[in-house]
Amino acid sequence: MDEKAILKRIGVNPSMRFLLGPRSARLLACLALSLGLSAQSTTSPGQSKPAPGSPAGTPQAPVVIKELPPAQAPPPNLVDSGAYIRRFTFGGTLSWLPLSLIQGGKKSEVYGAPPISIESQADNKSKYFGVGGTMDAYITERYSVNVSLLWRRAGYHLTTKYHDTVDDPGTTTDERTLVKTVTEDTRADYYDVPLLVRRYNKSRYEGGWRYFYEAGGSARVVRNIRSQTQEETVSTITCCSEVPATPSSKSAFGATAGAGVMLKDDFGVKIVPGVRYTYWFGGIFNQRAAVSRRHQVEVGVSFVF
Predict the structure, then answer these.
(1) What's the predicted TM-score (pTM) here?
(2) Per-residue confidence (pLDDT) for residue 75, from 0 to 100
């Protein structure tokens, strides 16, 4: 920067340099240049210059850098997509009973004085298959509560013969006289509700097939009892009364235990075959030779989603 420019910058008219003299003007220019350099050196590199029009020495507002809030975590996945088996599963079930619901057989009874003999014979007419629905709810990663509702058809054919006396076992002939014969056909609907706790060998987050064992209680109620009764004597036949047979109890309770496996296909359908044993503490029917079976074995398969 030349001498004229320095004098002009400090507010001295360059034409006045002739009045000051060359030497004085040169000294004044050097002094102004040295003052400018010292003022520049006192300013820190990171300090901003004051805004035009603001008084010297006024502190500038610090620059505030706002930090963006951290990204919030996504809400929990309510679909439970990470599990191999969902927490709640529903489906249908098919049940087969190797043993009949009603025990067949014969029964002989003697009543009164003089005694009379009653002989009865029952034939099972129950259906061996039952159908219903099932639900499985996991309470931990390996334990679940399973509840089902199963419909079954029970029935029997009962023939009862009444004699006026008893047979003497010491003779070869039958001394009795047949008084009447009563034939009864009865059908009824059973509704079974087993409530069981299952324990799986794998967590529901682990893939592949798995096995389980289960235990709990079962309840049974009877509905829609339908009967048809015919009475025959030596001279008459009375047909047909449709008064429903009277059950010994309208409900029964039992203890159940079982085991099974769970398989899963490529479409997400779980196939659950298994076996169960139930001991009923009471029976629904106790009509002479027609008696409800206490020991029940069940083979079933469920299809759940």
Answers:
(1) 0.71
(2) 47
